[in-house]
Amino acid sequence: MTDEKKGISGFFGKINLESFLRFLKKSGLVLIFIALIVFASLLSPKFLTYKNIFNILRQISILGVLSVGMTFVIISNGIDLSVGSVLSLACVLVPLIGARVNNNIFIICILCILTGALMGTCTGALVSYGRMQPFMASFGMATVAEGLAFLLSDGRPIILDDLRWTNFGNGSSFGIPNMAIVFLVVVAIGQFIISKTLYGMNTYAIGNNDVASGLCGINTKRVRMIAYIISGTLAAAGGLLMTARVGVGDPGIGSGYSLDTIASVIVGGTRMGGGYGSVLSSFLGAAIIGVLNNVFNLLGISAYPQMIFKGLVIIFAVLMGQSKKK
Amino acid sequence: MKKQTRIMALVLSILMLVALLSACGGQGSQSTSTTTPPSSTPSSGSTPAASQGESVSGEVDLSKFKVGFAQDTLNQPWRSYQADCVVKKFAEYGITCEVTDGQGSSETQISNIEDMIVSGLDLLVVSPAQEAALTPVISRVYKEGIPVVCIDRGITTDDYTCYVHADNYAIGGIVADWIAQKLTEKYGEPKGNVVVLEGLAGATTTVQRGEGFNKRMAEAYPNIKILASQPADFNRSKAMSIMEDFLQAYDQIDAVFTHADESTMGAILAIENAGRRDEMLITSVNGTTEAIKAILDGRMDMTVMYTNASGPGVDMAVKILLGEKVPKEITIDPLVIDASNAEKYYFEGTYSPDPMSLEDSTYTVREE
How much is the pLDDT for A54? Predict the structure, then answer.
């Protein structure tokens, strides 16, 4: 096994798993996570129960799906502030499409996902071909998507009469909550793409050094745009999951998700500035945030200390990741 | 280069399509439509003034009046509905009302008010984002001779013509009383465990409802324990997650108090999924149609109507425009809606049975 990285060929196959484990171990994040779990189970006997773990998995599944998409964008040295609004838009579209166009769940899902992909395409094109700063491009798209969501829903949550959605969202298959299954499948596919496909390697490359990658023959603009399309698509998927969870098309429900998603990706170890990180580490980041929220509520810690503590955790996690770089 | 321009063209056309959609889309396009409550409610016809709407406009042409409503934010269902109610109520009198969106920020709302004044207003209706921050601009407007009607939230001084609002402290207290009464029926005395899902952390409504509730519980019902209290930000999904965690942490919960129906719907899902509906009372504030339906279906127990005050507010505004004297402050008493009277307030297809006229509510009045 070679561990020197000769350009992008060093990311082939199994080696990536090892380098990922190395990077995790180096960043100590897994240790932090384990310590967190130990602490939590000591402080609250209710923590380490199947029910609670499944609750946590369900609670982080939406954040997790969004984080997978965000990982691609951040590795490519970008940022996507629109995921929360695209989530809200997809969430609102479910009852609207169901009522007006077609009640076939498959069709509703396809249309919502396509909307997310469309939003992602716009953001990606603005960044790649319009040469806009990712922050501004995605912020603009976020506002457009949010406006659309509120416009289409008249500013109010649309109640979904179709019980199939909440049945899915609250049900389980093979003993595992459905939402968690979707989340884990998305993580698996995302990790596969980022670590084992040419596209994934190219994403790291352009994040690491855009100019050099371009000179190597990578179509950097297309790679970058596709990252945003992935992010938008997964944001819409998150919106579908949200509808399954709460049973309404709520235009305001995604607010705050954009920053939370970025936080969970960064806590996981992927760095702003690109070229480094993985989908699995974002999964870990989302899990850490989910466990923290859950433990605070189990222990009855009031809201303001919670916020302070969470902020400190984020800072600490980022510092830990930074100090181990080169 | 060619490919680049093609992609830019694609993006621009998509954006233009979106803009076009926005321009002509969004007219009541949802299952919960924004119609006023059906004419079975007295509010649509009667006004507190002895003269009916028609005869008033017969004498005076009201449409010449310019009225504006400076709303705190339109990004929240309750507030966007409140704005709709205000506009519709004014329209019944033949008056067009302009609405501005403060986007949740005091500065934006201040600018909105200043802009509206510059374009010329005969009367300002306002629901301040933050009472203290909006007081300077509102008192300036009032002192310049433009009447001001505050609805739902007021300002810190007396520089307004009329203030119509519900009383959040009283609402919190009434929920406490209702829970205590039901728990007495269950246990023989007012005791039990309660969890609270608050509203947006730091918001006036949250603080006031919380204080009203906590004070009443502490003073009158010391044996009722408040196990935990977390802000759910009026967000369905967040409320659901918090309730799941509460259910996990506490084996016996006798009652849940949620600050808003929006959060309650999320909490209900969590409780039903855990199969613990029968264990606890579910109480809430707002009085949306969705919540009332849930009461009728047995999925929750009670909600307190939090009126958006648009009905009485607009009625007072019209009286002011006609030169009549109005009370300084009208405080509308909370209205408990539970299984015993939910039928009466259920109007399918509306967002809420609000606005209700003064005839439907009990209220206290403070003259100048």
Answer: 87
What are the pLDDT digits (tens) for B82-101?
999 999 999 999 999 999 98
Q: How confident is the model at residue A8 (pLDDT cuts 50, 70, 90)?
A: very low
Confirm or reject contact between B252 and chain A (CB < 8 A). no
Least confident of A18-27, A191-200, B153-162: A18-27
* Chain A residues touching B201 at Cβ < 8 A: 303-304
Rg (CA), chain B: 23
Domains contained in chain A, number: 1
Using the 8-state DSSP alphabet, how is residue A77 labeled? Answer: T
Q: Which residues contact B127 (CB under 8 A, 6 or more apart)?
A: B69, B70, B71, B72, B79, B82, B150, B151, B152, B153
Q: Is residue A39 part of a domain?
A: no
Q: Determine whether the interchain pair B11/A246 forms a contact, defined as Cβ–Cβ distance below 8 Å.
A: no
**Does a structural domain hold residue A65?**
yes
- In chain A, positions 18-57, which contact chain B (CB-CB < 8 Å)? 44, 46, 49, 51-52, 55
Widest Cα–Cα separation across chain B: 81
Domains in chain B with CATH codes: 61-160 (3.40.50.2300), 168-305 (3.40.50.2300)
Is residue A8, in this structure, part of any structural domain at all?
no
B positions 89-118 inside 8 Å of A (CB): none
| Residue A37 falls inside a structural domain | no
In 3D space, the residue among B33, B96, B97, B107 whose CA is nearest the CA of residue B73 turns out to be B107
B57 falls in which pLDDT band (50, 70, 90)?
very low
pLDDT for residue B35: 35
Residues spanned by the domain of A178: 15-31+50-323
State how far residue A105 is from chain B, nearest Cα, in angstroms. 18
DSSP state of A160: P
In A, minimum Cα distance to B200 occurs at A303
Least CB–CB distance from B11: residue in A44, A95, A126: A126
Q: Report chain B's terminal Cα–Cα distance, integer Å.
A: 72
pLDDT at A306: 83
Residue A78's pLDDT is 94
B162-166 and B148-151 strand pairing: parallel
pLDDT in tens, B250-283: 999 999 999 999 999 999 999 999 999 999 999 9
Check pLDDT > 90 for residue B220.
Answer: yes
Buried-exposed string B45-63: b where 16+ CB fall within 10 A, e elsewhere: eebbbeeebeebbeeeebe
What's chain B look like in SS3? CHHHHHHHHHHHHHHHHHHHHHHHCCCCCCCCCCCCCCCCCHHHCCCCCCCCHHHHHHHCCHHHCCEEEEECCCCCHHHHHHHHHHHHHHHHCCCCEEEEECCCCHHHHHHHHHHHHHCCCCEEEECCCCHHHHHHHHHHHHHCCCCEEEECCCCCCCCCCEEEEECHHHHHHHHHHHHHHHHHHHHCCCCEEEEEEECCCCCHHHHHHHHHHHHHHHHHCCCEEEEEEEECCCCHHHHHHHHHHHHHHCCCCCEEEECCHHHHHHHHHHHHHCCCHHHCEEEEEECCHHHHHHHHCCCCCEEEECCCCHHHHHHHHHHHHCCCCCCCEEEECCEEEECCCHHHHCCCCCCCCCCCCHHHCCEEEECC
Counted residue by residue, chain A has a size of: 326
Residue B325 main-chain phi, psi, to 5 deg: -85, 140
Residues 270-309, chain B, touching A (beta carbon < 8 A): 273, 290
Q: Supply the pTM of this predicted model.
A: 0.77
Per-position b or e across A276-289, b if 16+ CB within 10 A of its CB: bbbbbbbbbbbbbb
Least CB–CB distance from A246: residue in B81, B237, B245: B237
Q: Work out the average pLDDT over B112-131.
A: 89
